[in-house]
Amino acid sequence: MRIKGNNGFLGRRGFTLLEVMIALVILSIGLLGLAGLQIVATRSNSFSNQMTVGITLAQDKLEELRNLSYDDAQLNDPQPGNDSVNGNYQDGNNPIRALGDMGFNRSWTVSEDATNNLKTITVTVQWPHPDNSHSVSFTTVKSQ
């Protein structure tokens, strides 16, 4: 049994249709913001994965070259098809396939400081990206 007051039923419970619609609008705006963040997070995760592969490829080659002797042919004479004047080398496996069809190009440069018996080795890995191309480089100095 309900008791009637001056303006309708007393003790009325629930939400009006207007309150529910306002709550739904606020909720949908928040969910749209989260959807935008999800897209950004997915792109960032993809780029981080590519960066990790590029860094790994560069570090692997740098370690391989550092473990060679100072007078090793790979650190002195350019390989066939490479620039013999500047000591620039292209990896024979280019483009290196990783992450599906993503092509990584790895190259390295060896320059010699004969007076101090030092060789500077720089390894660079480049890869295409939908926005623009990216690269990572590592440099080390090898003594005799």
Sheet having the most strands: 5 strands, antiparallel
Number of domains: 1
SSE string, helix = H, strand = E? EEHHEEEEE
Strand content: 25-35%
Shape: rod-shaped
What does this structure look like?
There is one protein chain. The protein has 144 residues and is α+β, with helices and mostly antiparallel strands. The protein has one domain (14-143). Helices cover 38% and strands 29% of the residues. It has helices at 17-66, 73-76, and strands at residues 4-5, 8-9, 88-90, 96-98, 102-113, 118-127, 134-143. A hairpin with a 4-residue loop joins strand 5 and strand 6. The protein is rod-shaped, with a radius of gyration of 31 Å. The termini are far apart.
Supply database-style keywords.
single chain; 144 residues; 38% helix; 29% strand
Question: Can you describe this structure in just a few lines?
Answer:
The protein has 144 residues and is α+β, with helices and mostly antiparallel strands. The chain is 38% helix and 29% strand.
Any chance you could write out the topology, listing elements then pairs?
Blueprint: E1 4-5, E2 8-9, H1 17-66, H2 73-76, E3 88-90, E4 96-98, E5 102-113, E6 118-127, E7 134-143
Antiparallel strand pairs: 1-2, 3-5, 4-5, 5-6, 6-7
